[in-house]
Amino acid sequence: MPNRRTSSSSDLKGDDTSPVFSPRAAAAFGIRHIRNGAWDLFHRPGGHPDPSSSKKINDGDASSEIVRLIPYAWRYAHEIFTAAGGWLVVFSLVSLVQAVIPAIRVYFSAEMLNLTQVVIEKQEIDKERLLYTVVAHAACSAVDNMCSHFTQRNGRKLQRRVEKVFDRHLFHARIRLDVPTFEDPAVQGRLSACYSYSGSMGWAVFEEVLSSAVEILNLVSRVSVVAKQVYDHDQQGSILTVLCFSGNIATTWLVSKSQGYELDSVTIANDKTVRSINGLSACANDKEHRQEIVTGGLQEHIRHRYEAAKERIGDAPSSAFEVLVEALYPGSWVVDTCIQIAEKLPEIYLAFYMLQSPSTFATSFATLRILQENATSLAASSCQIFARRASLFSCFKRIRDFYEIINIPNKIIDGTEAYPIPDSLDDGALGTGIEFRSVSFRYPGAKQNCLQDVSFTIKPGQLCVIVGANGEGKSTIVKLINRMYDCDEGKILFDGKDVKSFKLADLHKRISVLYQECHHLPVSVGENIGMGNPQNVDDKLGIIEAAKLGGASDFIEKLTDGFDTVLAQDLDMVVVGEGGSELYEKLVEMKLLKAPVKAGLSGGQMQRLALSRTFMRPPEEVTLCLYDEPSAALDPQAEYDLFQRLRALKGKKTMVFSSHRFGHLTKHADIILFMKEGTICEAGTHTELLAKDGHYASLYNIQAQAFQG
Ligand SMILES: Nc1ncnc2c1ncn2[C@@H]1O[C@H](COP(=O)(O)OP(=O)(O)OP(=O)(O)O)[C@@H](O)[C@H]1O
């Protein structure tokens, strides 16, 4: 038997083979988790990612909450009607018309049965009434078809129109966030909650509201027709009605209880063996591996490994689909038996009744037919409408959350003053003067300070190199200068003024940064470079020139589409179920799953691309260059060329480098800062620090020895 457990148990820590896997973290976001054999199934109960939506609220709270939600609902209604206007009204009206058609059909079915009853009892037929009933019934089908055609044809168009508005809002809400706000798991959770499992929230909410109205109208109209039939024509109707409905309501309730999991799920193999089976299958199936397999004579080896892995999996599920089917249909013989008995109750009653008074057989049979035809769907509809209360409520809460996230305040507060300071002595012509005064900083969520009481001064136009071992805080200094984060204690000054007082847009315009982790954007190579100066993103000549300066021209020319080559993400997804992709994205966003990125470029090429991006900005605009390990992935020639080029800027711009390498840069530095455990333990020029014979001298000598043989 496969081993199935729920995530509530404390022993769920995931598999060591997947460092980012955390079912407990998933539970915190309202995503449930099941471990079945080697598989992990994540699902969102009721399709609502917001854990707060599952909280039970009493009626008093609910009504005051509803009052608070009204302004948001009003704003939402206003926005969707502005976007889709009259079409939305027509679409809603057609859907409502379609909602009453089933009731009209029931009415004419009842008419047919009544006519049959008259034929049986009196052996005569009302031809006119029969003709009218048949024609009207057919007309109903035609109108129903026309309505379906209309809603299908126009639904998608309307959906796109409504979604566009909300997609724009959501995009804006995301793109405007700064680093600490964006990294905040609470903010990520709120952003994720704004996606519904069928497209963007804007349309999903409209659909939910309209579907509720349609269901209510459908139910009310059908119940009226059935009730009229039962009470106009049959004395036994009330008992049959109770039996039909109670059986069906119980059935619907039992089924809803027994179905534990919806299709909105992601199933992944969190196990080395399954991953190995998938990899080996790919070896056997994919064309690209054939050459290596044949040349290397690997057939037998791969077959052996595949069989051994299959053996290890044993009787546990071997595919995501199997896992999903087991979760969806856990099955219960008690439930199934109850359903069977409940469905037969009205017939059993009728059989007893007919035995007692056979003369009323026809009448009761007609009523039973009408009731049986409708009871199941009416019971299901009433249960659904009942269940919809919660989802409607949570829909409006999602609207509120949506409008609130649009205005999530950024943690890095924008300054008000222009930079460079107008009328200052050099107006930034020589570069930015930087001062750290007793700066301490801790990353959000970290246990201890990453920088502790750091103080130093870099004069305008100076070249500063920050050195030290891994993890000592070099990159963090770069990030604080650039205001990616704000320090917790102390002050950072630009040209003698608190950096927080300057407008962020002005600072970003004057600072050119190259980060250690070079992430390309999933756009074209040319655009990746052009983005270095968003105002001139289409400046083709500028891009070509920047690529030359960054040393990227050579490899770009060799790419299939040159500057137009698109560097897209290739997610290796194992997703099952409707809405699963969206849930997968959420799991990735929440860093519960890793999204492997297919890198089309080597590390050095990525670095050259990122470097080229920094050359897009007009040189006179930039007053400060921040380079975090700019040459880590470059070959020696490229590194030498780069440093030659950058050194030529000395005296014209302030330059701050973080580096592990000594020599090329440090010999020319005006100031070297040696970092150890988040503090600056040595500061001075190359000559001064060598004379001091401390940490710097020791590391420099280690590197120098390598070249002395
Ligand atoms: N976003 C983050 N959240 C939490 N801790 C972080 C974060 N970024 C870095 N750190 C931690 O802060 C410390 C300093 O990191 P930093 O990147 O500044 O070091 P570094 O000196 O630049 O290292 P390297 O030479 O390896 O680039 C490290 O212990 C690191 O683990």
From TrEMBL:
SUPFAM superfamilies, per the entry: P-loop containing nucleoside triphosphate hydrolases
Keywords carried by this UniProt record: ATP-binding, Membrane, Nucleotide-binding, Transmembrane, Transmembrane helix
Top-rank taxon, per record: Eukaryota
Record-level Gene Ontology MF annotations: ABC-type oligopeptide transporter activity; ATP binding; ATP hydrolysis activity
TM regions (residue ranges): 80-101
Annotated InterPro entries: AAA+_ATPase, ABC_transporter-like_ATP-bd, ABC_transporter-like_CS, P-loop_NTPase, Type_1_exporter
PROSITE patterns: ABC_TRANSPORTER_1, ABC_TRANSPORTER_2
ABC transporter domain sequence ranges: 434-702
Name of the protein this chain belongs to: ABC transporter domain-containing protein
